[in-house]
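Today's session is about reading a structure prediction critically. Students often jump straight to the picture, but the first step is always the sequence itself: look for stretches that repeat, for charged clusters, for runs of hydrophobic residues. Only then move on to the predicted structure, which in these notes is written as discrete structure tokens rather than atom positions. Here is the chain we will use throughout the hour.
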Amino acid sequence: MRKTTSAAALRALVGGMVFLLAGAAAKPARAEFAIAVAPPRFELDAKPGERIRRTLDITNAGSAPAKLTVRTADWVYGQDGGVTFLEPLSPGSCRPWVAIERREVTVGAGRNYRFRFEVAPPADAPKEECRFAILIEGTGDSLGAAGLPIAFNGRVAIIVYLAVGDVKPKLEVLGGEVRNVDGQPTAVLRVRNSGTAHGRLEGFLSGVDAAGTSLDFAPSNAPILPDEVRVIPLVPTRRGDPETRVAPAFPVTVKGKLEWGKSESQDIEQRFGP
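Below is the predicted structure for this chain, in token form.
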């Protein structure tokens, strides 16, 4: 079992962004783990007995060939935003349904490699959401331009969600409060998912802070897994300028409509702060 140390990076990962671990060097040469993978996340649908095939693009932006290992893993998304990858099969894991093209691959400097995988739920598979990760890691034995060994240690994690049968999220906003997030007081929502698949809140809310400033708020794109309650931060920005994040003066009153899934929504009007 391995656990990452950067909760912020991992929140980004499960929300759909690729992250890298640390880079290491073998003296006197130094290497960078310059691997990018697209897309960073798959959200697929399948029927029991159906085989789903997909490809992902592995790009090596480094100056030397990259020798990589590829494997699958289960994962657990903690309430602190951290992700734990599990190498042994977890109870009920769907990884036995997964086949990857190969366990090792070398990507030339400045080159791209299309890597294939497939998921084949059996004909008697229950209606459920299958979740797993594809981990792409440096082997640490690449060669530099002068033929010297260059060691590096990095990982890219691709998250795969596969909805088997008719499964969907059912989200409900239970309330809101102000919490410290990344060192800043932040309006957050407590959201329960009583459905059978993960969900993500979408939409923009309007609000006014204690100074009378009109603001927009957007929910974090973090996944809310089935049978859990998760705290979702609301990101405040200037009205009409979603790229400029601001620090509101509390209390803040927020209202609007949040959406998820294909056509689900909930109206919200919430006061945050004393």
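Discussion point for the tutorial: Residues 1-30 have pLDDT under 50 and may be disordered.
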